């Protein structure tokens, strides 16, 4: 967002116009909307700014719920912002640790700062980009215990602060930065602060695990079965005795699997009636072994995350499938078997096999009104195709 667009939005006319618009819908006739607003006497720049913002607010509902209706966003800021339900867990750590004043360094549009302020904790968001800092100030305006400073986080005076939260920028324009020394601020800078303050660091879930300090609590978080981040926690905001955690947030609330460290592998065994796919956060946290033992299951292969049981066992940490048939992996055989069952809707899942699901789907020539799941994997040293169905409670 350019400064000129920001000024249009933050004007009294801009905010009134934005709030007067009906909620954006993807089926809206944008050309008609532009014409209507232009006919009402609004400038082209203002019309473009408010319609763009209306679209962003609609997208932001998934992350911010009703709060989105009074917030302002940029494309990049919304994409990188922490979901509010995740930010609430971050904020809760600082509250539980008795931290009174948090500096949110590289605060972006202010998602985590908002959650921290909502718990009556003093929070200072620090953001180097002028436009982003202005949007964060607008978004945090309802909270008197929050303020935003435009500054370089590496030069900001932290006197009086007793807790730190960082979300280092890991992109340069559209390019992902693979070297942690190139992040803003760098990972070394963040770890330096963690030696001085209770600190939380938000990182991508695929971080090189060798970079995680031994003293950190690493918590992988998934929302709706999508792994969204790993948080590294230090000092009093890290929980004693927990080095690895997988937090799953869904429609029914949150559940967590924790351990001192990576779990030991579970035993390898035969395929039973049920097969399970662990949530990605459990896989990233390397807690599969503990999960398998918790449900009295067994792994099917030492390097593949699927596991199996003979009896139906409930766990919020994995998706369960009932195995209907087991075939050797052979495309011609699969085509014949699926056709005989009139399976026209097929979910294809795979682990441990070099197969292109889209290409395979085309070759199977699916026809019929039945539906199933096809799981391609290895059981021991054999490549197998499991015809299965999702097994809901």
Secondary structure layout:
Blueprint: H1 3-10, H2 12-20, H3 30-39, H4 44-64, H5 75-80, H6 84-96, E1 101-105, H7 111-117, E2 122-127, H8 130-140, E3 146-150, E4 163-166, E5 171-172, E6 175-176, H9 187-194, E7 199-203, E8 217-223, E9 226-234, E10 244-250, E11 253-259, E12 274-278, H10 280-284, H11 288-294, E13 298-299, E14 307-309, E15 318-328, H12 331-340, E16 343-350, H13 357-364, E17 370-379, E18 382-390
Parallel strand pairs: 1-2, 1-4, 2-3, 4-7, 8-10, 16-17
Antiparallel strand pairs: 5-6, 7-9, 8-9, 10-11, 12-14, 12-15, 13-14, 15-18, 17-18
Quick recap:
This protein is α/β, with parallel strands linked by helices. It has 13 helices and 18 strands.
The CATH class of the largest domain is: Alpha Beta
The proportion of residues forming helix, as a percent range, comes to 25-40%
Secondary structure class reads alpha/beta
**What is the CATH topology descriptor of the largest domain?**
Rossmann fold
Mean pLDDT: 94
- What is the makeup of the main sheet? 9 strands, mixed
Query: What CATH architecture label of the largest domain applies?
Result: 3-Layer(aba) Sandwich
Radius of gyration: 25 Å
């Amino acid at each position: 967002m350019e400064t000129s667009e920001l000024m249009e939005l933050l004007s009294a006319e801009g905010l009134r116009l934005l709030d007067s618009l009906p909620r954006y819908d993807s089926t809206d006739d944008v050309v008609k909307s532009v014409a209507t607003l232009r006919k009402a006497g609004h400038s082209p720049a203002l019309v473009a700014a408010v319609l763009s913002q209306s679209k962003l607010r609609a997208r932001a509902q998934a992350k911010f719920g009703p709060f989105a209706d009074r917030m302002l966003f940029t494309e990049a800021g919304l994409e990188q912002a922490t979901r509010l339900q995740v930010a609430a867990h971050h904020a809760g750590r600082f509250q539980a640790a008795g931290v009174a004043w948090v500096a949110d360094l590289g605060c972006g549009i202010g998602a985590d700062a908002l959650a921290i302020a909502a718990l009556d904790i003093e929070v200072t968001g620090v953001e180097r980009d002028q436009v982003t800092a202005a949007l964060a100030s607008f978004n945090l305006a309802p909270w008197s215990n929050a303020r935003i400073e435009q500054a370089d986080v590496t030069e900001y005076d932290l006197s009086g602060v007793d807790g730190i939260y960082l979300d280092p920028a890991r992109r340069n324009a559209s390019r992902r930065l693979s070297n942690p020394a190139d992040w803003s601020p760098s990972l070394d800078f963040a770890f330096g602060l963690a030696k001085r303050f209770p600190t939380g660091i938000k990182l991508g879930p695929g971080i090189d695990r060798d970079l995680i300090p031994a003293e950190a609590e690493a918590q992988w978080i998934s929302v709706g079965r999508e792994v969204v981040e790993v948080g590294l926690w230090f000092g009093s905001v890290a929980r004693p005795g927990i080095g690895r955690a997988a937090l799953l947030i869904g429609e029914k609330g949150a559940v967590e699997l924790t351990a001192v460290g990576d779990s030991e592998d579970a035993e390898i065994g035969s395929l039973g009636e049920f097969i399970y796919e662990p949530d990605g956060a459990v896989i990233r946290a390397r807690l599969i072994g503990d999960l398998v033992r918790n449900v009295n299951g067994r792994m099917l292969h030492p390097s593949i995350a699927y596991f199996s049981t003979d009896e139906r066992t409930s766990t919020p940490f994995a998706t369960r499938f009932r195995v209907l048939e087991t075939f050797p992996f052979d495309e011609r055989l699969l085509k014949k078997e699926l056709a005989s069952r009139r399976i026209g809707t097929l979910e294809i899942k795979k682990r441990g096999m070099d197969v292109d699901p889209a290409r395979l789907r085309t070759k199977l020539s699916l026809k019929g009104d039945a539906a199933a799941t096809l799981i391609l994997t290895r059981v021991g040293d054999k490549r197998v195709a499991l015809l299965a169905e999702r097994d809901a409670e």
